[in-house]
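Please produce the structure of this protein holding adenosine monophosphate.
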Amino acid sequence: MTTPAQSSHVDAPAARRLLIVGPPGAGKGTQAARIAEALDIPAISTGDIFRANVSGQTELGVLAKSYMDKGEYVPDSVTNDMVRSRLAEDDAHGGFLLDGYPRTLPQVDALDAVLTDLGASLDAVLLLEVDNDAVVERLVARGAEQGRSDDTEETIRRRLEVYAEQTAPLIDVYEQRGLVRRVDGMASIDEVTASLLDVLGAPASR
Ligand code: AMP
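Below is the modeled complex.
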């Protein structure tokens, strides 16, 4: 008889440690909030943490804004430190859904190191697949609705380029680890949520 794999967090047998990946405008934030609620884990969005710091005019916010407004990534060292402290918080012990991190290969290594230190490992990487033209349309609309200063057409184009150059390669890394679960992100919001819960083997939400 083999014994089941032991987790260091014996109090959280249903722990879910998840990533959600996809190009800007794929609906990661919307879906992350829904999936996190259904699984009772925190959704941790690096973009949201940066935006909160921008609003609060913190030192981190001022630095982050200078990259965000150009559609570039905030430097890895800054982002990695921020995620390391966030994952060490109590609410992340039973699982988490990271939205928008990792986005570069060095961030993959940094996340691996953090998880090793926490005695944890990833369960799945949710990949939202969308059509590029549709994504540009969605983002232009969101920029107008929410007044996001990085949702202008020029910045959107740069963000899609940066995603293709720096983030798309991560999918191969996680694919080799057998973690990637692909979902069609072009369906309705409810249908995408249902598909995500389905690939996770979680019961459909209310
Ligand atoms: P998001 O809300 O995830 O689209 O992120 C908005 C912006 O925040 C990105 O375009 C980047 O400038 C910055 N950002 C968010 N997450 C990261 C990350 N993991 N690494 C570097 N920059 C990030």
